[in-house]
């Protein structure tokens, strides 16, 4: 796992380093870092919301297919894929933001555990030498992930044993302050005080608790929005299970890592709730469904109007044909009369007897 943390921690470490250079405060740098990472994920969040909106629009078609092929799963999957292709929809696109959040979390663990590597940034020789001094002082607990935090704490407590290291490094380590709003972001929360003063223990304890609570609020928010959009399909057993799994995971996880990671998780959850509310209002699936229904009804009305006009046109055409026939018949009769009159005059002229039958 250390390798995975390091891989994702390298790019995020540069972001955290830039944030620290700007604000010169570890806690504020963490807040700025969270804002930046959430901003980078915003396009994916928008895509996810649009995907949800699109799913809601053609959900009636999906329901119809499920009813039609409920006893033929193979045919159902085939027809579903055709529908997805027709609608240009990728069912996995909505999962991307959730998948992206985990690499960021893994990278954040590396950034918090390694403030020397990512914030002070001395050469690798100094980091190695500092670890050796920590071991020689009997202060290395064997937790390689936490060794850099232990080095900084030891230097701040007594800089004398570290004098052989670079003076600039010692100065930066002494200036590093992990405290923010009464919380030591480099310390790991525990269920019991373990000899810590209440002023230290309680603020630390709040970090995982608030992390779990905000994660639960996100799950509730998501469940309500999905139910309003997708109906009872959004309230399945698996969805309900995930609703409680993530908050419990957040609570447990925040007790395993420094409070800085839990604080990032907490801040990220708060931003996610605000972002979700805004995007849901802008790309409201319910409104999209109503608009699609209105457009469909308007199209049906247009088709009905076209059929009505075509029917009227045919009726008018039939009437015109009858009038034309009447005109044609009238002309024919007139011609017949003219011919009969001419024949009568010819008969009179030559002394013949003219009768109507001669027509």
Backbone CA Rg: 41 Å
Q: Could you state the order of secondary-structure elements as H and E?
A: HHHHHHHHHEEHHHH
For the biggest β-sheet, the strand order reads 1-2
* Low-pLDDT segments: none
Mean pLDDT: 82
Question: Which shape, going by the Cα principal axes?
Answer: rod-shaped
Protein structure class: mainly alpha
Helix fraction?
over 70%
The N- to C-terminal Cα distance equals: 113 Å
Tally the helices: what do you get? 13
**Beta fraction:** under 5%
What is the tally of beta strands? 2
Label this structure with key terms.
2 strands, 13 helices, single chain
Secondary structure: elements and pairs:
Elements: H1 2-23, H2 26-57, H3 59-68, H4 73-87, H5 96-113, H6 115-120, H7 124-136, H8 147-157, H9 167-175, E1 179-180, E2 183-184, H10 198-230, H11 237-254, H12 259-282, H13 285-349
Antiparallel strand pairs: 1-2
Structure description:
With 359 residues, the protein is an all-alpha fold. Among the domains are: 1-177, no CATH class; 288-358. The chain contains 13 helices and 2 strands. It is rod-shaped.
């Amino acid at each position: 796992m250390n390798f995975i943390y390091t891989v994702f921690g390298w790019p995020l470490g540069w972001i955290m380093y830039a944030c620290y250079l700007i604000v010169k405060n570890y806690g504020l740098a963490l807040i700025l870092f969270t804002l930046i990472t959430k901003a980078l994920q915003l396009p994916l969040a928008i895509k996810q919301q649009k995907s949800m909106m699109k799913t809601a629009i053609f959900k009636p078609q999906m329901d119809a297919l499920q009813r039609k092929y409920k006893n033929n799963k193979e045919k159902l999957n085939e027809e579903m894929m055709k529908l997805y292709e027709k609608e240009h929809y990728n069912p996995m696109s909505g999962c991307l933001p959730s998948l992206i959040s985990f690499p960021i979390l893994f990278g954040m663990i590396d950034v918090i555990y390694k403030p020397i590597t990512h914030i002070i940034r001395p050469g690798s020789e100094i980091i190695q030498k500092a670890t050796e001094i920590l071991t020689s002082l009997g202060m290395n607990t064997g937790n390689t992930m936490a060794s850099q935090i232990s080095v900084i704490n030891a230097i701040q407590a007594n800089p004398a044993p570290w004098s052989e290291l670079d003076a600039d490094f010692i100065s930066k380590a002494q200036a590093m302050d992990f405290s923010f709003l009464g919380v030591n972001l480099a310390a790991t929360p525990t269920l019991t005080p373990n000899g810590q003063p209440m002023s230290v223990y309680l603020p630390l304890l709040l970090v995982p608790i608030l992390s779990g609570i905000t994660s639960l609020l996100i799950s509730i928010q998501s469940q309500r929005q999905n139910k309003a959009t997708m109906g009872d399909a959004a309230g399945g057993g698996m969805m309900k299970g995930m609703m409680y799994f993530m908050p419990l995971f957040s609570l447990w996880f925040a007790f395993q890592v420094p409070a800085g990671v839990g604080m990032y998780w907490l801040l990220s959850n708060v931003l996610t709730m605000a972002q979700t509310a805004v995007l849901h209002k802008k790309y409201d699936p319910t409104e999209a469904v109503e608009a699609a229904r209105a457009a469909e009804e308007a199209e049906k009305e247009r088709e009905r109007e076209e059929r009505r006009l075509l029917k009227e046109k045919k009726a008018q055409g039939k009437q015109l044909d009858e009038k034309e026939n009447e005109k044609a018949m009238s002309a024919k009769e007139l011609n017949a009369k003219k011919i009969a009159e001419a024949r009568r005059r010819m008969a009179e002229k030559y002394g013949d007897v003219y009768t109507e039958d001669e027509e």
